Amino acid sequence: MNTQSHDKISKSDFIAFLDAPRHLWAIKNNRLTPIEINTFLEHLFDQGYNVEKYAEQYIQEVLIPEYNMAPDNVLLQPTAKDHEFEARADVLILNPQTKKWDMYEIKSTTEIKKQHKYDVTFQSLVFGKQYELGDVYILHLNGEYTRNGELNLKNLFARTKVTGIVSELANEVQILRYNALDVISEHDYNQVPSCIRPKQCPCIDICHPDLPDYSIYDINNITASDKKVRQLENMGVFSIDEVPISFTLSDKQKAQVLVAQNRNVHIDIDMIRKDLNGLHYPMYFIDYESFNPAIPMYDGYKPYDQMPFQWSLHVRRSKDSELEHYEFIETNITDPIVGFLEALTKVLGSEGSIIVWNKAFEGTQNKRMGEIHPKYNDFCEEMNSRLYDLMDIFRDGIYARREFKGSYSIKKVLPVLAPDLSYKGMNIAEGATAMISWNEMVYGTLPDVKRQQIKADLLAYCQLDTLAMVKIFEVLEKLL
């Protein structure tokens, strides 16, 4: 085992190892693939920094006074080492009752995830060599907190004691962290397990150097667990075209593999007819864009509640009528829901089907908007009673093609069914960029020219989303 001074394992190294051992090897050998931080990660980082800022304020104003401790007995961002392992904690507080150091780790989520349990256990093992630790806590956002006036820091955060969890995981993490040391001493990365999620891989050139265009990792939901993926890998099967027909898969996965291997188009005309015949005119094709701040910005919101700020609506009043388009975007510093719903009530009639792509999103937002602003609750509930999810036809394999690669994203379906429309070349072409751009436009310090450009880009993007649904719908209609 290599124990040179530069071969240390930090908490972030350990988390990379848990994600995939080869990711840790890539970090230690400078083999990470240079990639630009995408806008969604940028958003998560920004929200994380914001949570940390308020958490530090919580520590100073709520936590430390509760302990009634002198400043010397509170350690902020202390570091510790245990031979090859090193860590930095968020807070250590000497408990006057137990005379032991209580450890606090800050997380920007509203719930404690599996990864959090392992990383705080790693922390406690390291710090336990230099400090007599007492209880271990995870300080996280309280998902049930609803803002009402000024932020209430005491209620915004929740402290969850994980001392028992840490104790249960200690032996396992002890073994795992030495396994991580073995990884960084390995010269040949082929001897180190790779990841099974190429789309999120930070070192694609060494984890999946010869990845087929349509791989086994594209099989719907197969990467939810390692077992089936590793079985295929051990058989030398990496392309979906090589998956044996006898290999055990779910019905949906088998259907995807057969469509891919036969290079045919699967269309259940009867199911499509049943779905579309159940719709009623006028038909409203609608799409929302939203922003989800970790720290609630307005009254009625909880941490990470979505704030819908924009909608696009295409209307077909009859089969042969001209397509109508309406749109809204909030550009003022205010709770966007009020203007959003008020504008929608003026153009959305009380009859007809409301067609969306991913009903779970729009339906959830309608429910929350009605809860936050009860004045519109009946309107929001009525909208939900009329929702139809066009995505279901593709998610459920009613219409399946090899070109979709098992995806039912509108950005995968549109280029195949309506190639005359495209998101390519647009300044804003996906949801994460949309929400970050809107936040900059409304709450940033951009010049007016830049604000106007962002507004135009947002309107164009959202309009294309609903027009895309219309075009896909028309393609399905022609099949009947």
Key words describing this protein structure:
480 residues; alpha+beta; Lambda Exonuclease, Chain A; Nucleotidyltransferase, domain 5; 2 domains; 5-stranded mixed beta sheet; 17 helices; 14 strands; disordered N terminus
Number of domains: 2
Mean pLDDT: 94
Gyration radius, in Å: 26 Å
Q: Would you count the extended β strands for me?
A: 14
**What's the shape?**
globular
CATH topology of the largest domain: Nucleotidyltransferase, domain 5
CATH architecture of the largest domain: 2-Layer Sandwich
Q: Roughly how much helix do the residues carry, as a percent range?
A: 40-55%
Q: Kindly report the name of the CATH homologous superfamily of the largest domain.
A: Ribonuclease H-like superfamily/Ribonuclease H
Count of helix runs:
17
What is the CATH class of the largest domain? Answer: Alpha Beta
Percentage of β-strand residues: 15-25%
Residue runs with pLDDT of under 50 for 5 or more positions: 1-5
Strand order in the largest sheet: 1-4-5-6-7
Q: Structural class per helix/strand content?
A: alpha+beta
Q: Main β-sheet: number of strands, strand sense, barrel status?
A: 5 strands, mixed
CA-CA gap between termini:
67 Å
